[in-house]
Design a protein that fits this description.
This protein is an alpha/beta fold. It is 60% helix and 9% strand.
Length: 473
C-alpha cells in the first residue's frame, strides 16, 4: 500500500509538471502512512474487493483539495498514475520474487502461508517498495516522458485514463486466473469483482468519449452556423458601406456646385466669410459612428462632450450589428452599464496620468468570431494587487478620485450571466500610444486573462491566466 501510494503521487506530480512545496510533500507522506497504518491494523478490511477503489477515490479527492488543479485534470492524471503504479508494483514484485526464489527455503514458497511478522517478508516488501519507486523515477528519465504527460491536459485525457485504469484491472484479473488455475473464475469472487470494476471504468470512458464526440460535432455545427451569420453580417455591412460611399459622392457634387455658385455670386466675399465662420464652429468635432441603438448613441455622445471638455480625444469604432448584439448577446441595459463604467474608469486613469497623449477609444461589435466591447486608454496602469483581486471583492486603482470598485464588480456579474471573458492588456507607458485596454468578449468561456509586459510580478492562480502580449493594444 505504501509503495503504490508513494509511486502514484510521484508519477502524478511528474506527469503534469506540478511543483510541490515542502508542506505539500509532508502532507502527502502523512496521507500515505495513514493508509499504510490502516492496512496494518485492519488487514482483512484492506483486502476486501472495494478497498483498492476506495483508496484510489479518496486519493483523487485528497489530491484535488491539496493541489487546487482542475478536477478533470486531477482525475485524469491520478487515475493514470495509479494504474501505472499498479503495473510497476507487479513488475517490482516479479523481479524481487524471482531473485528471492534462489535464497528462500521451501517454507517461503508462494503457496505457503505468509506470516507478515517474519522479518523476511518485511525485507521482501521493502525491496519491492524500493524497486517500484526506482522504476517510477526511471520512467521520467526516458526522453519521451521527461516533460511529463502533456496529453493529460487534452479534453480526451480522462477517457485515456479511464481506459488505461479499467484495462489494468482487467489484466490483473487475467493474471489471477493464470496463476490460480485450480480456481474456477466464477467462484473467485474477488477476481469477478475486479473484472466488473475494470469493465465499468472502461465503460464510463466509452460513455464520456461518445458524449464528447457528440459535443464536438454540435460545436462544429454551431460554428458553421456562426460563420454563416457573420458572412451575412459582412455582406450587410458591405452594402451599407457602398450606400454610404454613394451618398458621399452625391454630397461632394453638391458641395462642388455650391462652391461654384459662391464664386459666381456678387457677394462672394461676404458669403465666404459666413462659410468660414460656420466651419470654425464645427472645427475639431468628429462625428461618432451610429450604432443604430438610440440609447447607446446618446450615451456615447454624452461621454464625447465630457471628454472634449477635459481635452481628451475620444474615438468610437463599431463593427457588425449592434442591434443583434443587444437582442441576442447581452441585454441593452447591461451593455449601457458596461460602457458607462469602463469609460468612467478610463477617464479617471487618463486624468491621473501626466501623459501628453490623452486618448480614449471605445470599440463595440464583432471581433473575429465573437462580439465584444473594448475600452483603450492612455492613462495610468493598473496596480498588480488590483488585477489579482478583481472579481473577488470591490477593488479600485482610483480610490482617491471617488472610485469604489463597483464597475468591475458589475462587470464580473455580467460575465457570469453571459459567459463572457475579461481580457486586460497592458503595455509600458508611452507618450504616443495606449497604455492598456479592457475587453469583455462574449465567447462563452468565462475566463479572466491578463496580457502584461510584467508577468513575473503576478502570482500563480487558478482564477486568471497571465500571458505576455504579442502585440500592442
Amino acid at each position: 500500500m505504501l509503495g503504490i501510494l508513494f509511486s502514484s503521487f510521484y508519477i502524478f506530480t511528474k506527469s503534469i509538471q506540478y511543483i510541490t512545496t515542502k508542506s505539500h510533500r509532508i502532507i502527502t507522506v502523512v496521507w500515505c502512512f495513514l493508509w499504510a497504518f490502516l492496512h496494518a491494523i485492519a488487514p482483512f478490511f484492506m483486502q476486501l474487493p472495494f478497498a483498492t477503489p476506495l483508496v484510489c477515490f479518496a486519493s483523487v479527492i485528497f489530491t484535488y483539495i491539496l493541489t487546487k488543479q482542475k478536477l478533470e485534470t486531477v482525475v485524469s492524471a491520478y487515475l493514470l498514475s495509479f494504474g501505472i503504479s499498479l503495473v510497476l508494483y507487479y513488475i517490482a514484485t516479479a523481479v524481487v520474487s524471482f531473485v528471492a526464489m534462489f535464497f528462500l527455503g521451501s517454507e517461503h514458497y508462494d503457496t505457503a502461508l505468509i506470516d507478515y511478522n517474519e522479518p523476511i517478508y518485511l525485507l521482501l516488501y521493502s525491496l519491492i517498495f524500493a524497486v517500484q519507486f526506482v522504476l517510477s523515477v526511471l520512467l521520467f528519465r526516458i526522453r519521451l516522458f521527461r516533460k511529463g504527460f502533456p496529453f493529460i491536459f487534452n479534453k480526451f485525457a480522462i477517457v485515456i485514463a479511464l481506459f488505461f485504469t479499467g484495462g489494468i484491472l482487467i489484466i490483473v484479473t487475467w493474471v489471477n486466473m493464470i496463476t490460480r488455475l485450480e480456481d474456477d473464475f466464477l467462484e473467485n469472487r474477488l477476481s469477478a469483482y475486479i473484472y466488473a470494476v475494470g469493465v465499468l471504468i472502461a465503460g464510463v470512458g466509452i460513455y464520456i468519449l461518445i458524449s464528447r464526440l457528440i459535443s464536438i460535432f454540435q460545436e462544429r455545427k454551431v460554428q458553421q452556423n456562426a460563420e454563416s451569420h457573420f458572412e451575412k453580417l459582412y455582406l450587410e455591412e458591405k452594402a451599407k458601406n457602398e450606400e454610404l460611399n454613394r451618398q458621399i459622392r452625391a454630397k461632394s457634387a453638391v458641395i462642388h456646385n455650391f462652391t461654384d455658385r459662391l464664386q459666381a455670386m456678387e457677394e462672394a466675399v461676404a458669403l465666404q466669410k459666413d462659410w468660414d465662420e460656420e466651419l470654425d464652429k464645427i472645427k475639431g468635432k468628429t462625428a461618432l459612428p451610429s450604432t443604430n441603438v438610440v440609447a447607446i448613441d446618446n450615451l456615447l455622445k454624452f461621454y464625447a462632450r465630457q471628454f472634449k471638455a477635459e481635452k481628451i480625444t475620444f474615438n468610437v469604432m463599431t463593427n457588425g450589428s449592434i442591434k443583434y448584439m443587444v437582442e441576442k448577446v447581452i441585454k441593452q441595459g447591461d451593455l449601457e452599464v458596461l460602457i458607462a463604467n469602463h469609460l468612467n474608469d478610463a477617464k479617471k486613469a487618463v486624468n491621473a496620468s501626466d501623459n501628453t497623449f490623452r486618448n480614449i477609444t471605445a470599440v463595440i461589435g464583432v471581433s473575429g468570431k465573437h462580439y465584444e466591447f473594448s475600452v483603450l486608454d492612455s492613462g495610468i496602469a493598473f496596480e498588480v494587487d488590483t488585477l489579482v483581486r478583481l472579481g473577488t471583492e470591490r477593488v479600485t486603482t482610483h480610490a482617491d478620485t471617488g472610485g469604489g470598485g463597483i464597475g468591475f464588480e458589475t462587470t464580473f456579474r455580467t460575465m457570469r450571466e453571459t459567459g463572457a471573458s475579461l481580457i486586460i492588456n497592458e503595455q509600458e507607458q508611452s507618450n504616443v500610444d495606449y497604455s492598456k485596454s479592457v475587453t469583455i468578449r462574449f465567447d462563452g468561456k468565462n475566463r479572466y486573462i491578463i496580457e502584461t509586459y510584467r508577468p513575473d510580478e503576478f502570482p500563480e492562480s487558478s482564477r486568471f491566466t497571465v500571458v505576455t502580449p504579442q502585440y500592442s493594444v
